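debug: dumping io for the single-chain case to check the tokenizer round-trip. Nothing else runs in this session.
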Amino acid sequence: MMIRKPDDNTLVQSTRVYFESGIVDEFIKIGGMWIMENARLRYKLDEDDVSDLFIIFHGRAQRCLEIFKAGGYSNFPAFLNVYNKHLVFNFFKTHKIKRNEHYICLWDEGKRLKLDTEEEFELLDITLEMLSELAVLNRLVVCLKHNVKFSEPDFYVLAQILKNNPNYPLDLFIKDYKRRLEKIKKEKEYILAKINRYNRRIFYKQENIEFSIRKSKRKLFKRFFKCNEIYSLKEIGRILSLSGRRANKIYKDSIQNLKYRVTELSKWNEETQTPLAV
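debug: decoded output
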């Protein structure tokens, strides 16, 4: 049965009843309607799942209010929106729901790709900042390996190296570099087209192949981001006039350094941010 989602003022008033009297029934009623309609409209849950979600919320309503109070938050509708998001996705995880329409970010592959791309770019921004702390030769090796854009000073150093490299002159490098970039672009376009074909098959619910298609899609996403690797370490050694062993050592040392810094940054973020517990 469809019900109207309570407005923000009614929702806030139901929380005041609890904080003033300790009686949670009004919030269970109003907050429950809010949660159910939010789940229907935003997350596209069917009636069975909405009912199950309400039962879970019924048992956690008081804890929800206590988290809000203990956290010192001021905007309860915004808080409940975030809380409901955690509730829904924990519900998916607990019940291991596999059907396509219940994966909010998966049935719209554009959103999924956007999320994955933004996450990669966020990591890339961190990496670029950290790269500045490496020696210039280390930066060149990493940039050539993973198709990271050169800074102007680094490209100048690379150009000077290539000018003195009879086996790999600058004009040959630029021509080859552009060719490889075009190849990467075409490969990504091919992968995206294949993902879209898989999406159509999943959308029309060809149940007997849905699981294998999802598995193939995950492999394609990994391949999509991995195809940014533009040069092998052997080729990088040739470009920079280094032995393959030397190029390999520089690369491993650089990646180890970057991983360490990312780990330290993650620890710092965990220490300075308090996640919302559901």
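debug: round-trip ok. Confidence is low (pLDDT under 50) at residues 97-123, 273-278.
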